[in-house]
Amino acid sequence: MEESGEVFRSFSWTLPHGHCLAGYFNSNKEAEWYSDRLLHNLKIDGTKDHVFFQRNNEKFKAELEGAEVPLSQLHYRGAGSEDPHKAGHTVETRALLEMLRQACAKIALSGIQRGRVSCNFVSDVDSSPIALSLDFFEDGSTRSLADLENLHKGASKGWDKLSQHAWCGRKLSTTLQQTNLWDIYLFLIWSKHNPSSKIWEQFSVRLYPKFVFLAGYLLEAYVDELANLPLAPLPLLKTKHGNSRRVPKVNKIILLQRVKAQKRHRGEVMQTHTDLTPPQIALVRAEANLEVAEYVKLLTTAFADTQHVQVSWDASTYDVETLVAIAYDYKKNVSGYLPIQNISPVQTAELHETVRTLAVQGRITRVESYNTMRSFSHALNSIGLPLAAFAKPPDLLLGPLRAEEERVLMNGTYFIYNTTTQSIQRQVPTAWSLAKQPLLISVSDQGPLNCPGLDHLQFKLRGFVLPLYDQSHRTWNDLKSAMRSVKLFRILLQFSIIYNMNYGPGGTKAWMAKKQQYAEEFRAKQTADGKIFLSYMPYICHEMGLSEPTTAEEREALFGTITSLQTLQQHGPLVKLMRWFSYFQSHQFYAGEHFWTKMLIGEGGPPQQGIQPEAVLTPDILAGNLDDREELRQLKLKMGSWRLAPLLVTPWTWWKNELLVSMATPVWSCFTQKAQQLKLPHEIAGDIAKRAGTKLWAEEIHAVIGNGFFDGPQKLYPARFLSNEEEGQCISLHFRRRVQSSASYYLRPPFRYAGALLAESRETQMHADWAAVLKAEKAMAGGAGMEPLKEMHWRLNSVNRLIHLIRDMAEVASTTAERRAYNNQVVELLTFVSTHLADTVIVENTHQMAKDALRDARHFQKSRTGKQVACIRCSAIPSRGVPCLKVSDDQKATASAGKSSSFDKLTHPNTHALKKEFQRLMETKTKQHTWPSTTQQMEWQQVVATEWFLCYMQDGDKFAAGPNSAWLSVLAGAAGEVVACQRAGEIMLILAVGSYGFAAWDLELAAGVRTAAGMSAFRPYRHNAIRFHHITELEDWVSVPVKPGLSGPHGPLHLEQTSEAMSLPLARIHAGLNLTCKQCQDLLALFKVNFRKNQSRASLHGLILDLFLETEHEKEEARRKMAACLLPQEEEHAEDSDMEELLEQLEDLENQGDPEIQKEKEKIKQRRTGRIAVPRAAGPDEGEQVPKRKAKAKAPPKQRKKGLLEPKMKAHLGHGFTG
After folding, report:
1. For residue range 652-672, what is the model confidence (pLDDT) as tens digits?
2. pTM summary value
3. How far apart are CA 756 and CA 764, in angstroms?
4. Which of these, 973, 753, 913, lies nearest to 381 by C-alpha position?
5. Are the C-beta atoms of residues 236 and 278 closer than 8 Å to each other?
6. Which residues contact 177 (CB under 8 A, 6 or more apart)?
7. Which secondary-structure segment (H or E) carries 840?
8. Distance (Å, rounded) from C-alpha 47 to C-alpha 51?
């Protein structure tokens, strides 16, 4: 049997008189025999094994020495041994033969290869030494003893005596003229037990060790064949008092194999197999405890010397919020589950005194983020790497230089010289080693609980932590944002109900049979020429891509396919929680059968029939007071899913669903393609190195452009489904979020330079870029204005700075060996940051499988051990092909019973208080206590600022206005607008805009297409034409007003110019000016308009309007648009990593009883609030009781209103322009 790469081979050998000996092959492929069964067969049951071995220890030494058998063949595993009581006492084969020589069982009549055994003995005839050689034939016989009578008469007489009289029930069966191996062996044993004769001393003593070795070799070869047979249970042995002796390991393994597929009541089932084990052993009573204890040992051993680790982690609700983390060591290529963490409230007793004081005063925030980081650190502590281990050594100088510091090179080593104190210090300490420096890559979702703690850790504490955020969540959030922008998210909710009908109601799958019954009744009662079928036939044919039948035979053939529909034969995919791409998989399954489904269950309703307002719509729905989710929920409560589903499919909703799927196809297909092809960490690293820093990062965007402008529309736009009013609503451009996400992932360091692993030229570019960063940091420390550098937060990350520092050290190394060593370290670091599990999908799959297993098991729902076992037994990691730790049946069979409390301590984060510097995360940010925040928008701003910074540093003479001049790029407009650079003669489609530039796709004139007004039409280049642009002079740039249109009745898309081009500031005023105070001041200064430094934003906007607009009517209209832009936007839940909107819609799912569904809404509401537990009374895990704060006096209504609104307005006005 093979488990986790190890092979356990057991054997049993039943002797002719019924005795059973058994054993197994150890890791050295040597047979070890169980001593308890040996003693049982020798009738020594009255003595315990260890007592028998202790009493006869000296005798064994002498006997084994006489047989030339090493003492190491006797394995005593008592107290003080390396593995006490693991497998019991055992003996190897030659020692077994020595212990069995009194019983002298006939071993086996197996053959022996032709060979020779030689020895010397003393003749009893003339006392002369004689050399004897025994030559054996292939059948194990020999004729070399035919002359024994002349050589040793006593041995010859002894042979005749043993041939006639049995000893221990056995006689010799051959003569000296032709005897065999086993008779000689029996004769030698007989002579050893007859000391009165001289045969042993004169003849046998020298021949006996040879035959022990030979017989042992043959016996081991025999049991090697027995070990290849299927595992067979061994009889259970009992003591003289009737108690069970040690249970054979093979019995335990067979027991585990029998219950392998058992999920429910596993322990109770194991107790019924009394033929294998007694019901009271630890394996039966506490299998989960054994497995978890062994797993923790494996985990500790595997990561004992790990310093560079990657962890994918995510929390979900079981009985309580539980964090699950998967650690991966890229050097060993091994992964494993860290101990799960039951996230419990932070207690005041855990806090440092200063933080506790603030907590009592109610002046702390981000408590939930600290709680999450504390749990994460406690999970890492199980492998000896808590978050404190990743702190930067104080004598390793990685940060940007201050004004009084200089970086100098002396004798091939960098030093930091302080001009104020006249002190000098090595930038890298002599004793520092990369191999001993802990490094962490954290992969999690970009949520409000994770980001603050990780930002504090990497930017404030400068720890060696590189946070990466899940691209699966980001992809779904981007899609969801685009769907909401064009009002298509409701379509996704509606069709999710339809796609899950085969599993309803409540996961019973009864509606599948109901649909089949309706299909059979429809086939029996209706005809191909019936009114219902004829009304649906055009839509069915259009959906299936068929021409409408023109003859009765063709109609009958189409009508006959009704009972063979795929959706009536299979349940199909399930739109399931946390698997957003399952919606598109379900659409593929239902493709061509939407109208068939509506016709079958619609009870004769026409294809155009939707929800009738006068029949079911409530006043709230009619008034538009409900969002899509709540509206559908009320409709389901009023009508039920079965009645509602066919009304959700109409020609218009079907077309919008096709539009949604078609436009999203490049995104989700690219995601699924990566999920299928990039499973292993080294495959992910290769993909990152290939795409990062090249145009391949925009491959997905290229597919979206092509699908939107060339491929998709020609299939989508049937004229009878559209009206002129609806065309403008459905044809829109929404690329911004995907461009930002893709660029943020591949174009930010360190991934930006991962291509250095493939090409030396990209490594040279990396070195040049970092030299520019260091030069700019030095200038900024001296007071120079380098605003783009302030947005490049990636340069503050210690892992990024370490990569570039070691690359600099390689450049100035004095010897070739040093240069090679430093370059190898750079490669090691780039490999480390690129080789990881990429996302948290593997953790989410673990959550799903573990919850299903716990639900099926019907026990351990609230047990920490049960949750850990459910995680480590699931197939989430093996399904990716990533090597992972696993407790084998062999290890469980030999494990000793432990207490569950020892593992529970590993899952209780309240026992793991972080230091004060970590707890300061909960303090309110101030001017001195602050750090950058990582959001999707800020990651994009980092990319744009980096592109502009490197562009400026490469050729600063081209930009006379300086490094801050590219801020004018914010005037380019929003995604989907078109701008033109007159000097370069280029026109481009804006995809995403940042503070210092924008990403755009080059356009070309649509040949042969003119608008009704005679203006031009534009179309994107088919090849990858994405570029970054930076506006430093307004005179060269204009905005071109366009609207999407169709080149023909069915596409393709193009962009029609609607009016003359206008300047960028004027275009922004017409769209609704939304600039910060600083940007307004810079714009007015550019046009030399006087203003006060402390002037309000509204007055600055007024000066801009006076500058570009003439009439009061124009100014008033501009103010109205600006007011609309300044209104606080409705909170968007797109950043939530789950499909919260589907939790109530998909009530027909099999995961309806999941406790996460009931608690998810409350969790989302509390996600942004900081809470800390104030215990009522002190307990083992509780802090001291804190008195309640006194309630403040109520303010007058007007003052109260003013006090609540003003801070919100100030906070809103402080936001920068985000594009």
Report:
1. 889 888 888 888 888 888 888
2. 0.80
3. 8
4. 913
5. yes
6. 143, 146
7. none
8. 7
